[in-house]
Amino acid sequence: MEVFDAVETRKSVRAYSSTPVPKEKLDRVIESGRLAPSAMNLQPWHFIIVHDTGKREEMSKARYAKFLKESPVVIVGCGDRKSSPKWFAIDTTIALQNMVLTATSEGLGTCWIGSFDEDMIRNLLKIPDHLTVVAMLAVGYPRKKLDLAATVIRSGSRKPAKDIVSVEEYGAKDER
Ligand SMILES: Cc1cc2nc3c(=O)[nH]c(=O)nc-3n(C[C@H](O)[C@H](O)[C@H](O)COP(=O)(O)O)c2cc1C
């Protein structure tokens, strides 16, 4: 799959089948995060792969994360504040987005999760103090189901390019 096709076809998946994610696919997803760029190549990240049903059940108690109960894998992206105080969140996010696009190209669904109680996740996964939980990803095979939340949230679609892009200076439009 071309990169742009993955960018274009990806959407947040909030209903998952119980089919396990094959190890080689998950390895490829993780590898694409490992290869991500980072400021000064500090790689200030750590990823915790959660399969355990009990742990996912706990994570799914957050308001907008109910589907973590059914997604067979959750990737918890942690950023190392100590090694890169300025860039840890951006670097970890870039690595996670590499994983999202690779998962898409592997036929997997994903959803970013920002709905979590950091202290709860920290205790649950025994995360040391120097790491911040930046975001999590649900990963698994999409289950066909009317996903009302996705329909409502996506109905706003995307802002038009003319509203978010300037050329040469802020507010100037492309006259070509
Ligand atoms: C940083 C971040 C955090 C998000 N957190 C959640 C979340 O906790 N629960 C959820 O259902 N969707 C979450 N989303 C998904 C967004 O709602 C979704 O990306 C957006 O509505 C656009 O829809 P699309 O991903 O299908 O294109 C999050 C997305 C990002 C980038």
Would you mind describing this structure in some detail?
- This protein has a single domain, classed as NADH Oxidase.
- With 176 residues, the chain is an alpha+beta fold.
- Helices cover 36% and strands 16% of the residues.
- The protein has 7 helices and 4 strands; from the N terminus they run H-H-E-H-E-H-E-H-E-H-H.
- It is globular, with a radius of gyration of 17 Å.
- The model has no long low-confidence stretch (mean pLDDT 94).
- Strands 1-2-4-3 form a 4-stranded antiparallel beta sheet, with helices on both faces.
- It has helices spanning 3-9, 23-34, 53-59, 88-105, 118-125, 148-154, 161-164; strands at residues 45-50, 73-80, 109-113, 131-140.
- Bound molecules: flavin mononucleotide (FMN).
- Flavin mononucleotide (FMN) binds at residues 11-12, 14, 64-65, 111-115, 135, 150, 153-154.
Mean pLDDT: 94
* Oligomer description: single chain
Which runs of at least 5 residues are low in confidence (pLDDT < 50)?
A: none
Q: H/E element string?
A: HHEHEHEHEHH
Number of domains: 1
- What is the C-level CATH assignment? Alpha Beta
Q: Which topology does CATH recognise?
A: NADH Oxidase
Strand order of the largest sheet: 1-2-4-3
Distance between the termini: 31 Å
Radius of gyration: 17 Å
Helix content: 25-40%
Task: Label the overall shape.
Answer: globular
Structural class: alpha+beta
CATH superfamily, called what?
Answer: NADH Oxidase
Helical region count? 7
Shape-level CATH architecture: 3-Layer(aba) Sandwich
Please provide the count of β strands. Answer: 4
The proportion of strand residues reads 15-25%
Main β-sheet: number of strands, strand sense, barrel status?
A: 4 strands, antiparallel
What small molecules does this complex bind? flavin mononucleotide
